[in-house]
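Structure Section — protein described below
Tokens — whole-number codes for backbone shape
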Amino acid sequence: MTDGAKLGDVYGATIGRIKAQDGDKLRLGMAAFMWVNHAEQPLRADELCHALAVELGSTDFNTRNIPSMSALVGCCQGLIAVDKAASTMRLIHFTLKEYLSAHPDLFSRPHSAMAEICLTYLSSQQVKALSTNPSPDSWNAPFLEYCSVYWGVHAKRELSDRSYSLALELLKGHYSWISTNLLFARVQGLYHPGFSTRIPFSGLHCASFFGIMEVVAGLIQMGCYNIDGEDFSGHTPLAWAAHNRYEEVVKILLGWEEVNPDKPNGWGRTPLLYAAESGHEGVVKILLERGEVNPDKPDEDGRTPLSYAAESGYEGVMKTLLEREEVNPDKPDNVDWTPLMYAALSGHERVVKILREQEEVNSIPNNQMRKAGYCSRGLRGLDMRE
């Protein structure tokens, strides 16, 4: 018998002891085990304890339900521990993670259960009351940040009937400004200092941001919102769905005539531009099927969808855009940079080759490259001229 098999026997026996515990200890032990194993990021001890204190179906968060750490570790039979260096909870050993991956039936639909807990927490009276209180020091809600950032991730993976109903109830009004701030402060590249996220970020924007098509469809059917309305950053629900590469949500939104598929935000950026920048060829093709969409529409910096796709090296998106006659493959932006220059400077040689095959594309002057102060990385094979 191998060491791995022996460890598996030990883990199996220990989990058997967890399951043999009396009611509350069994529930607490397996729930903690589920959170530590399936959470989107390592949880601090106070976050985990608050998660375990949530009562599904209750609008009141009862602090008397919060377990002590000693009770929690005991219920888990030593299979979870505190990582002292990071102050977070972890499985006792990496091999336990491997064991759990090989035994997915230990937890029944964990992500739907976690979505239900997050949504219940966000819907509690205590959290809702925070929407009128701007002082983080008085929140006393350590689980709030995790719920705000990840409830939609769990719900998208596994959406139960209960989490669907909870999401509709939570999102039928304007989304909490505190949860909005926490979400956008954590998602790299989407938080814009200077914007006040107290300006509505609607439930429909939120559902589109997370890409939960059932919730998007449900909110639209309820008639809660202006389906083409702008949020604090000027984004429409369609812009968020395109930005985050959610093809099915894009299709749902485009099914309504009120939606303008080419509507720019405050920076002149359209849903097509976001889809091209994100590299989702399917969303790009769906948007280009709409006659109202200008495939060469620049943003306020003069950059086109092709320019962003070239810079990121998305060959499929580029080829799709180049099939359209309206697209100028050599169109300069406000600082006279062309798609070819962005591709070259980013080191995307295959993209450079695709662009140079276009008759309209000119090669890059040496003096222009030197003026910009860039190195020659990615420029091999280019015809340079003074």
Observations:
- DSSP finds 21 helices and two strands in the chain.
- The beta strands are 80-83, 88-91.
